[in-house]
């Protein structure tokens, strides 16, 4: 029999856009209603096509004041409402998220550029799970081990990034509401659409007006929110630079903060690892969500004795990654979120080459419009290279080698960050040892980028402070009882 | 047929020289992380194969079917009917390809051969299928008998007892001996497939070791299951075997085929397997010479989906033959 003359070409399998209804323009969601902003406006674009999706209001200082006042007014009722009643709203929101899951996933992929298989199978299910999980806590706060009669903080100002727009919203809003706080949330400038759809879901769930307020805008809007005197708590996920600025801005004000910032995670592969699965973990660790992940495994530390084999397998695997239309169900890597981010990734990659690291990417056809960057690996990287120290926040992997476990630990910890780390070995005792030694908020063993609402998440050092998720995540939204996150 | 590069395999002659060295080699293969392997297989299962790609995949899947009946109640009439179906799976559509082979017990090979001639291969199970519990002489006689009856392919079972007891060299030697029993008087040989019964080996580490063991012993194909033990073929087990043949070809230059058998009943499942072949082993394996489905009910679902692709409508099961 002759060999097949044609290769197995997957025909386009696009998810339908008809499920979403994007309006021409959006206002702000304040006190339960959509209102026009008093400031200017900006456009949000589809990063895969550069098509303008909608005109978005940019909240001014006056708008922020309105939103915070609405949240303060709503706080009285919401914080005094019995926990089991608050839980009903959260359960209702969780169920609506599940019911409207496809709509949320498609909209997230259009606005953010992430592949539909991730928004559909990862983002949206975990978003619903967060609301379900914290709904369960709302009437059990007394039993969370955070002291008797735990009390909410008040109004939380929350600022979230563009890499997981809806998921970061859930991480912020679900625990805040469960604890009885009200929120003013600012989604990222480039990805406001799912937060605005979430505002509609709050209306659909009959959430009392003012409990959730969504204000769109860029950096100055965020600054105004952080600086507002009636905000009791600031929760921020984003870059370390902005995190530092926030910490400076609220110093001495009595405002509390949780900051979830950058990372440069080490993914450590020992020579006794299950290599095929380790390669999957490396690929998932850095190319998931185009590498726009603060806990991405962007530094591969591989034991020198298997380095060649791991790299061979890794490159072969990378050649099968499908880069393209985020709405195609077979796409593995979607679009880079913005022109600015693409420029940053290109700049750092060029620096990597200039510093002498060897750059490799599989041959792949990139669409002519939109923002794209192929999955890329740098070999021959050392601790002194900038691509080994700075967060690229893109599909770019730096490969370093080590000889012994102690060298792996030293190199892994030799970073100003400390958000996550991965360990690949078939030896259980080594996993436990590494987990003790690595200064990172999350250490994954024989897996990577696994998120669950029951598991606390957060960083060491310049990766931030405070924890989100789990019982520990409640502490960030309740008055201090003398217990710190680390005591839990 | 694989163009065997003996230089490639020769490098492993020391590995198979003693029980100790073979065990050391097999236990030195990289482990398989169960959670990771299953997640990878599930991930590939979410690929969406539509329109032209689906039509292409359905025809390929039909051409890869080893249409199988392995029952105590098999009669000459039953296997002849099956042979007729193998030639013309969809009598109403002459563009529908034939299947790869008909798979029966050794004594019924002649009946099938009479119908299919050389248009479709005839595969026979041997070596005390399905349990593999018999003396070596009996197993080899069983094989020789099937070959003498005209079998083009022999599906042998390994001695799982010996494998699980760690007597790898015994399993290796059985495969080597069975392969010799596949040689016909004219010097050609029946194509050998080695069945692991992965449902009894249980762990993916065992599946990877068995794969390397059989490949070093000179098999042409590695096959998951007899269909008599649950679970039979699964996506992750086949994934591990596809990784093994991929790695083996890189190491030796010798290409080995893979046959999942048992439990694959729907066209949708078959396409998931093809996606996995494509993305794990590569498109060199997307051919009936290198990948087969051991199945019986699968064929009708493939035909039903194929008809749906051409007519745009689903027909009832009565429009497809039951043989």
From TrEMBL, chain A:
<dbReference type="InterPro" id="IPR016163">
    <property type="entry name" value="Ald_DH_C"/>
</dbReference>
<dbReference type="InterPro" id="IPR029510">
    <property type="entry name" value="Ald_DH_CS_GLU"/>
</dbReference>
<comment type="similarity">
    <text>Belongs to the aldehyde dehydrogenase family.</text>
</comment>
<protein>
    <submittedName>
        <fullName>Aldehyde dehydrogenase family protein</fullName>
    </submittedName>
</protein>
<dbReference type="InterPro" id="IPR016162">
    <property type="entry name" value="Ald_DH_N"/>
</dbReference>
<dbReference type="InterPro" id="IPR016161">
    <property type="entry name" value="Ald_DH/histidinol_DH"/>
</dbReference>
<keyword id="KW-0560">Oxidoreductase</keyword>
<feature type="active site">
    <location>
        <position position="260"/>
    </location>
</feature>
<dbReference type="Pfam" id="PF00171">
    <property type="entry name" value="Aldedh"/>
</dbReference>
<dbReference type="GO" id="GO:0016620">
    <property type="term" value="F:oxidoreductase activity, acting on the aldehyde or oxo group of donors, NAD or NADP as acceptor"/>
</dbReference>
<dbReference type="InterPro" id="IPR015590">
    <property type="entry name" value="Aldehyde_DH_dom"/>
</dbReference>
<feature type="domain" description="Aldehyde dehydrogenase">
    <location>
        <begin position="34"/>
        <end position="479"/>
    </location>
</feature>
UniProtKB/TrEMBL annotation, chain B:
<dbReference type="GO" id="GO:0016052">
    <property type="term" value="P:carbohydrate catabolic process"/>
</dbReference>
<dbReference type="InterPro" id="IPR002915">
    <property type="entry name" value="DeoC/FbaB/LacD_aldolase"/>
</dbReference>
<dbReference type="Pfam" id="PF01791">
    <property type="entry name" value="DeoC"/>
</dbReference>
<dbReference type="GO" id="GO:0005737">
    <property type="term" value="C:cytoplasm"/>
</dbReference>
<dbReference type="InterPro" id="IPR013785">
    <property type="entry name" value="Aldolase_TIM"/>
</dbReference>
<comment type="pathway">
    <text>Carbohydrate degradation; 2-deoxy-D-ribose 1-phosphate degradation; D-glyceraldehyde 3-phosphate and acetaldehyde from 2-deoxy-alpha-D-ribose 1-phosphate: step 2/2.</text>
</comment>
<keyword id="KW-0704">Schiff base</keyword>
<protein>
    <recommendedName>
        <fullName>Deoxyribose-phosphate aldolase</fullName>
        <ecNumber>4.1.2.4</ecNumber>
    </recommendedName>
</protein>
<keyword id="KW-0456">Lyase</keyword>
<dbReference type="InterPro" id="IPR011343">
    <property type="entry name" value="DeoC"/>
</dbReference>
<comment type="similarity">
    <text>Belongs to the DeoC/FbaB aldolase family. DeoC type 2 subfamily.</text>
</comment>
<dbReference type="GO" id="GO:0009264">
    <property type="term" value="P:deoxyribonucleotide catabolic process"/>
</dbReference>
<dbReference type="GO" id="GO:0004139">
    <property type="term" value="F:deoxyribose-phosphate aldolase activity"/>
</dbReference>
């Amino acid at each position: 029999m002759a060999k097949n003359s044609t290769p197995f070409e997957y025909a386009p399998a696009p998810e339908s856009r008809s499920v979403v209804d994007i309006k021409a323009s959006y206002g702000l969601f304040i006190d339960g209603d959509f209102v026009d902003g008093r400031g200017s406006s900006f456009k949000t674009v589809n990063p895969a096509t550069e098509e303008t999706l909608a005109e978005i209001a940019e909240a001014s200082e006056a708008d922020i004041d309105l939103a915070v006042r609405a949240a303060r007014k709503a706080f009285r009722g919401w914080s005094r409402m019995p926990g089991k009643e608050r839980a009903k709203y959260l359960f209702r929101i969780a169920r609506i998220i599940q019911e409207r899951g496809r709509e949320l996933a498609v909209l997230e992929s259009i606005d953010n550029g992430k592949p539909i298989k991730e928004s559909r199978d990862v983002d949206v299910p975990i978003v619903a799970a967060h609301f379900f999980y914290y709904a369960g806590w709302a009437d059990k706060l007394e039993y969370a081990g955070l002291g008797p009669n735990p009390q909410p903080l008040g109004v939380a100002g929350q600022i979230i990034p563009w890499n997981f727009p809806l998921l970061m919203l859930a991480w912020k809003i679900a625990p805040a509401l469960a604890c009885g706080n009200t929120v003013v949330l600012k989604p990222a400038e480039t990805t406001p659409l799912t937060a605005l759809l979430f505002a509609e879901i709050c209306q659909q769930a009959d959430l009392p007006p003012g409990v959730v307020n969504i204000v769109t805008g860029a950096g100055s809007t965020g600054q105004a929110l952080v600086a507002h005197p009636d905000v009791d708590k600031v929760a921020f996920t984003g870059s370390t630079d902005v995190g530092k600025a926030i910490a400076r801005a609220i110093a001495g004000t009595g405002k509390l903060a949780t900051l979830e910032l950058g990372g440069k995670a080490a993914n450590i592969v020992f020579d006794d690892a299950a290599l095929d699965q380790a390669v999957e973990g490396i690929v998932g660790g850095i190319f998931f969500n185009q590498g726009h992940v603060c806990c991405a495994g962007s530094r591969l530390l591989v034991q020198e004795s298997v380095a060649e084999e791991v790299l061979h397998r890794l490159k072969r695997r990378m050649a099968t990654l499908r880069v393209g239309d985020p709405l195609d169900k077979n796409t593995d890597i979607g679009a880079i979120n913005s022109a600015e981010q693409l420029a940053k990734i290109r700049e750092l990659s060029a620096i990597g080459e200039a510093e002498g690291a060897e750059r490799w990417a599989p041959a792949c056809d990139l669409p002519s419009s939109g923002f794209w960057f192929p999955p890329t690996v740098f070999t021959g990287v050392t601790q002194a290279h900038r691509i080994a120290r700075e967060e690229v926040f893109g599909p770019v992997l730096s490969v370093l080698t080590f000889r012994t476990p102690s060298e792996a630990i030293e190199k892994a910890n030799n970073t100003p960050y400390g958000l996550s780390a991965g360990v690949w070995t078939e030896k259980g005792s080594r996993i436990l040892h590494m987990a003790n030694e690595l200064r990172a908020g999350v250490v994954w063993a024989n897996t990577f980028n696994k998120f669950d609402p029951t598991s606390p998440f957060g960083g060491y050092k310049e990766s931030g402070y405070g924890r989100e998720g789990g019982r520990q995540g409640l502490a960030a939204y309740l008055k201090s009882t003398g217990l710190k996150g680390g005591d839990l | 047929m694989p163009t065997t590069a003996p230089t490639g395999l020769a490098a492993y002659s020391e590995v198979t020289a003693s029980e100790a060295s073979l065990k050391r080699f097999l236990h030195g293969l990289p482990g398989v992380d169960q959670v990771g392997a299953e997640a990878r297989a599930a991930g590939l299962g979410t690929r969406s194969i539509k329109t032209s790609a689906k039509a292409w995949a359905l025809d390929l899947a039909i051409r890869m079917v080893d249409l199988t009946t392995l029952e105590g109640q098999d009669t000459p009439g039953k296997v002849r009917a099956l042979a007729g179906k193998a030639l013309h799976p969809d009598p109403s559509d002459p563009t529908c390809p034939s299947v790869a082979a008909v798979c029966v017990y050794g004594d019924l090979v002649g009946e099938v051969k009479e119908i299919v001639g050389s248009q479709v291969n005839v595969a026979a199970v041997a070596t005390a299928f399905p349990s593999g519990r018999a003396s070596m002489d009996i197993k080899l006689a069983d094989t020789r008998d099937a070959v003498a009856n005209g079998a083009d392919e022999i599906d042998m079972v390994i001695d799982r007892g010996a494998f699980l007891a760690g007597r790898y060299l015994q399993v290796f030697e059985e495969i080597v001996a069975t392969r010799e029993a596949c040689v016909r008087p004219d010097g050609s040989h029946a194509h050998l497939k080695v069945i692991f019964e992965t449902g009894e080996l249980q762990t993916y580490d065992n599946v990877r070791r068995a794969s390397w063991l059989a490949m070093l012993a000179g098999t042409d194909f590695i096959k998951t299951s007899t269909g008599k033990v649950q679970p039979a073929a699964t996506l992750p087990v086949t994934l591990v075997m596809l990784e093994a043949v991929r790695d083996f070809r890189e190491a030796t230059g010798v290409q080995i085929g893979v046959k999942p058998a048992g439990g694959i009943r729907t066209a949708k499942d078959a396409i998931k397997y093809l996606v996995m072949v494509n993305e794990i082993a590569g498109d060199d394996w997307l051919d009936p010479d290198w990948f087969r489905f051991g199945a019986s009910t699968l064929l009708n679902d493939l035909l039903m989906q194929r008809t749906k692709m051409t007519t745009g409508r689903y027909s009832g099961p009565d429009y497809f033959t039951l043989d």
